[in-house]
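Example 3.
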Amino acid sequence: MTTLEDLLCPRSIAIVGASDDPTRIGGRPLSHMINQRFDGAVYPVNPKRETVQGLPAYPTLAEVPGEVDFVLVAVPAAGVAEVVRQAAEKHARTVLIFSSGFAEMGGDGIAMQAELSRLARETGVRVIGPNCLGAFNSATRFYPTFTSTIDRATPVPGGISIASQSGAYGSHIYMVSHLRGLGIRYWLTTGNEADLHIAECIRLLAENDDVHTIMAYAESVKDGPMLSEALETARAARKPVIFMKVGRSAVGAAAASSHTASLAGEDAIYDAVLRSHGAWRARSTEEMLDIAYACRPRIYPAGRRLGLVTISGGAGVLMADAAEDAGLDVAPMPADAQAEIKQVVPFASALNPVDVTAQFFNDLSLVPRFTKAMLERGGYDGLIGFWTSVAGSPVLATPLLKSLTQAMKGREDQIFLQSVVAPDEIRKAYEDAGFPCFEDPTRAVNAMAALMAFGIAFEKGRADMPEAPALPPLPDGPMGEREAKRLLAEAGLPVVEDRLVRSAEEAAEAAREFGRSAFKIASPDILHKTEAGGVRLGVTADDAAAAFERIMASARAHDSKARLDGVLVSPMIEGGVEMILGARIDPVFGPVVMAGLGGVFTEIFRDVSFRRAPVSADTAMEMLDELKGSALLKGARGQPAADARSLAQALSQLSIFAAAHANTLESVEMNPVRALPDGAVALDALIVTRKDRAS
Amino acid sequence: MTTLEDLLCPRSIAIVGASDDPTRIGGRPLSHMINQRFDGAVYPVNPKRETVQGLPAYPTLAEVPGEVDFVLVAVPAAGVAEVVRQAAEKHARTVLIFSSGFAEMGGDGIAMQAELSRLARETGVRVIGPNCLGAFNSATRFYPTFTSTIDRATPVPGGISIASQSGAYGSHIYMVSHLRGLGIRYWLTTGNEADLHIAECIRLLAENDDVHTIMAYAESVKDGPMLSEALETARAARKPVIFMKVGRSAVGAAAASSHTASLAGEDAIYDAVLRSHGAWRARSTEEMLDIAYACRPRIYPAGRRLGLVTISGGAGVLMADAAEDAGLDVAPMPADAQAEIKQVVPFASALNPVDVTAQFFNDLSLVPRFTKAMLERGGYDGLIGFWTSVAGSPVLATPLLKSLTQAMKGREDQIFLQSVVAPDEIRKAYEDAGFPCFEDPTRAVNAMAALMAFGIAFEKGRADMPEAPALPPLPDGPMGEREAKRLLAEAGLPVVEDRLVRSAEEAAEAAREFGRSAFKIASPDILHKTEAGGVRLGVTADDAAAAFERIMASARAHDSKARLDGVLVSPMIEGGVEMILGARIDPVFGPVVMAGLGGVFTEIFRDVSFRRAPVSADTAMEMLDELKGSALLKGARGQPAADARSLAQALSQLSIFAAAHANTLESVEMNPVRALPDGAVALDALIVTRKDRAS
């Protein structure tokens, strides 16, 4: 398997299409590597020149005398495939292609890119790009990139790495990271992803010992299951992945698909997949960088209890608000610790937020005393201090830092973020002492929320994923409700009992047996049964014969050509909480499973929860808990609690069913499912196979 | 009426408790005014010294020789009231009190503060504080504050002003504003608000010609109606108010007896009030400052169409996502304008976001051409450009700025925010050319959303507020459903017809007349009718007698002492959309009105909309549109659309009812209200009066 060393630690590089002009695309990487003193051999390839930027040039890649590990390509699209072939002959491991004019242009470009993919597969040479801005390894000063940011922002050492589909945006992330003082080790842009794609980049970074934090940007992901694996590799290595997936909005998605010409995949599923593997989905670049910065001490608390200590009561309230928004627990201090603080400053707020008050100006020792009380007695998983420009004051900066350091003595494994307004050199002193600093207190809270989410995910580890047995293919063609329910029942799912009746007499008999019943037309040709007059609820044995005749007549009137198998009779099941459970095959992630509250909640409030399938019953319980309306299952509004465990069990079974039929299934939905106080049961089901869809 | 000049433009100041030590609370303001050269007379008052910080000192305020406009008090709490009395005798206009030990300490402090309030009221002297950090007027270099930030950050001229309840947080806001290069004209902290409070500050700032943008911070507001007036004054003057109201997470503590009250939470009302008057509620300091900064050109577009032009397709997608989150419309370019762009760069995205692509590096004229096409043809209300560090490049910064300026020639009334990563001097050049700059593109989008919200609110102006007639007081004591419905019907509200029946015969007769009927126990002592077995739905004439007897028996069994008036019979009204309409008297804002979807939507999803009452039917329509579930009223899921106009009319009537009864009402709720395709009707109602509550 490829490693990051294979890709970005070469001993030699050939630049095909090298330019003597250091401002041109083919000239910049050469200029970077000369200026930065790349730790290896550099061979410009240019048939028109003897030397390029002072180095001897070679007319073709084949004529380069030594071994070539890495080939950079900056020639027009038409000539690229030939360079890849030559690179393979030269036993290069990697070819990075700047050239555009491939899939992003449509037409012939698509075929030309497919040829690059094929060459990568067949020769084993790894291809980065085409249409990418390059990559770098700052440790070996290896800069195969034409971004100009390198000239203005020479990378500094550090364990953060960046993978980005977008070159220009990848440069932006790099530049802003640099300005924040973040050391970037590896930087990769993947462009059109003929071979190397973003999910694999994350795996490579997760496997590399020099990388401790991963930032990623993507508009789409080619291989959802590989993304899952990559995120699990990072989680196992306790490496935070901060992932920005754009194209959430309708306009954004349209812009992304025109930009990269790739299949989008549903955004809510990305959301669920990232979260379920412990990655943090960043909504803005600033958020991404804030979190990467807060990761520098590499302390990830495995809990959400947040202690706040502040010099401003107002800032305390503000941070408490932000903490609640972020799902953190601003738990109160134990009573004895509160009493201790009150003894020192009677009018201090000691509950949490703990307010050192203006008394602080008279007695700086309050800071270590108060924070010690919080750390020792509060049992907080993390602390944030708000000191505003007091921390930047020429008089107070040093004593404050000293007292904070003193408070943390022996607690170096705990995280204490600071909100300070201070000149760079003072801020740096705080950072060097292990305190990440944020000017804005809300941003400090949000960064803490991410650290805690990482810590909890690292602790929790990988979710159980049950085995999906190989099952025989699903039957072809449209499938009626009865058939769908039968298949699901066979797979162990709780579906309501039914009987197909073909006469008024049979109908009456069934209703006698079931009690109050639901009557529904059974026809493979009628999908919208209610519209066809094909549904009657609460039918009693007395009404049954008439109900049968009316349903058959209505259905006939609705569609004279429809095949009518008869009427499906089921016992009426009422009460409980109406749910929808479903699964489908996502183009990016494969089988995914979904749970939602019924009807309006799913359609209008979009209160649904997703996971990659299959899921265990425990994971299914988590999915139910994630619903905004989960309170309903717990028995809100005077109703009894629903049997969530049975519902979760059904969801797990459904996910296994979907995964087992991934090759022939398009989607399956049990709607409604009634979550009763004792058990859960599906009243209707729909299975769509791929052949149905194609037809 | 007081003006800001009265408060913060004095010709003279006396500092009672002035200290010779410039680091002490009583010494700092004097030191500030000496260092900054305050444009007026300064009289230190200190009985123990001949001079204070080099100025002649006076033993008492009375002994100060000249006129004193402004008195600053830094003596212990016990002596403060006497100073206020002396200040009144001296015909001072304003007393600003640093001293703590008042209401914030509880106990005697509360009475001492009440005395200050009384003195202010009776003498006409305006009191700022107590327990406040002070204020400033940077134009006259008047610094009656002990914040130390002034030493490190001398205010620069500008039209932004700050009002904050919190002193420490007010200092933080000032400091961060200063670091952003924002000129702050007036800065006020109100502390305990014995007299001057935050709402009045906003009014004073709104009325002052030197102020163009207002930032405010509050934990609570003393006078909700005055806040409304202040915000309307600002709106009429086209001055943005950026308001940070903290304490969101403490909501729900003030739960009241009625249903609406318990889920309202005061915070949701602040939210609604701020929005309805065109103020922007900031969630973080950074957001507040971003918006104040973006207000500098004072251009507020009255629409939400956003044009995006970018050098990175990825950033375009990201900004489109952020725009959708912010409710902006990233509308596509007209086809002809797209064609024009495609002619120049065939592979450019021309839809919006418009991507200038790397082609930009070869031809900078693309920028004015593309942006001109967007401005002239796109009809956008505002534009954002993303240029990242290209805008900071030594080579490209100047030509890019030139081309942006050229594109805006003749369009100086349009707003064009820039996302750039550039050194301070380059950023300043952009700002001087009229382009506010943001490093982070998401923050640029959010700032634009605020500018557009201001523009729309300025254009729209004040909402009609109908007259609330004076009505006779509500009856005392607990009120049954029937009485509540009768009162509401008299006020013109649509409530379902009902009849009180006292025997099985009367019940049968009513059911014969109404058709299928709803039976409910009528008792002033039974609030939870369903629990008491007191409700039967869908009763026919045949079942009526039995239903009557069963309800009466169940109610008797439930509470043998309850007064049973009989059974209330109404025609069954089914279908439509179930809503809750309510109103209550909020302690801060007075009468407020509320609309929500029924049951679960209101209780669990908290999908409710508020306004100060009374509201016009038009405003009521806006309230319905604000509901997340408003799609249900428009006929989602194959249902007919509800008669939203009738519903809005009812909501308006209910708000007038509440406002008219503001003196005796606690809360009123119509729940459920069925919004039918034709009309709306309340099926139940509850009125709680203040006397009910007290009992």
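Chain A touches chain B through 80 residues (CB under 8 Å). Chain A has 26 helices and 28 strands.
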